Amino acid sequence: xxxxxxxxxxxxxxxxxxxxxxxxxxxxxxxxxxxxxxxxxxxxxxxxxxxxxxxxxxxxxxxxxxxxxxxxxxxxxxxxxxxxxxxxxxxxxxxxxxxxxxxxxxxxxxxxxxxxxxxxxxxxxxxxxxxxxxxxxxxxxxxxxxxxxxxxxxxxxxxxxxxxxxxxxxxxxxxxxxxxxxxxxxxxxxxxxxxxxxxxxxxxxxxxxxxxxxxxxxxxxxxxxxxxxxxxxxxxxxxxxxxxxxxxxxxxxxxxxxxxxxxxxxxxxxxxxxxxxxxxxxxxxxxxxxxxxxxxxxxxxxxxxxxxxxxxxxxxxxxxxxxxxxxxxxxxxxxxxx
Length: 338
Prior knowledge:
Elements: H1 11-25, H2 28-55, H3 65-72, H4 76-88, E1 92-94, E2 99-101, H5 103-126, H6 131-141, H7 147-156, E3 182-183, E4 192-198, H8 203-211, E5 219-225, E6 230-234, E7 237-241, H9 243-246, E8 249-253, H10 254-260, E9 275-281, H11 287-295, E10 303-309, E11 315-320, E12 323-328, H12 329-332, E13 335-337
Antiparallel strand pairs: 1-2, 3-8, 4-5, 4-8, 5-6, 6-7, 9-10, 9-13, 10-11, 11-12
Helix pairs in contact: 1-2, 2-5, 3-4, 5-6, 5-7
């Protein structure tokens, strides 16, 4: 069974540790371990290449062998060999100017992206690692987890729809809706919007955004937006970003945000005596708040019944799996049902 680890050791150091161990242990077991690690390292390069090709699949940003070499920190010749291998495996197709994924290549890439985003959701909800470490943790473990382990993890997390950055998690079949919204740098003056996604790379930019207390679910009000700076308020605080950094934050205007979920009912719309099934929890719920909801049984597919409204009207008692729980409207507005 996979044990998730926050050890960010580089492959070279891992191989070195195996060689040192082999000097003392000797025998064929060392050779087998080395071969397995070598095969794993080749698979990791292939999977990293597929992810990169998927994330740069747009016509305006085609990936060349030079771009792939730079991303993977390998030579251009090694990148050419890798592309030929991906082509022979039926995972990619190449032309004189770009490399593209085949349908099978996209499915493989989405599988690794699913693993990555599930791991980020896990580390955000279940551990004490800082936000800036979530991405590195997932990068270190996404190649170690099996399909079965990933699906077990998804069930334990309540089959989440979003990762903690607001990215949609691909389904087990490889479907992934387009990410809605526009960059914060393109939001008009005096507009009010919700943050739905924050890009977690590069790490230095993400750290700066996190340090300002911004996260998916934050409501912002644009004050000024020019080619030199983006000024807005969030939770009563004035924030100033460069347009380049603001581009890493995706927002949806409040009216559009509500329209986006018009067809997706929230738990707050459930009438007393009505039953429904949980569809998911908004990415606005993070950390301890999210863990508490999961502990209460608010997981995808769970049946829930609205039973009793408090005299003050803000709290409603629900039955879920035979247990009575009380939730406030501010919470039920962010729990989706079907």
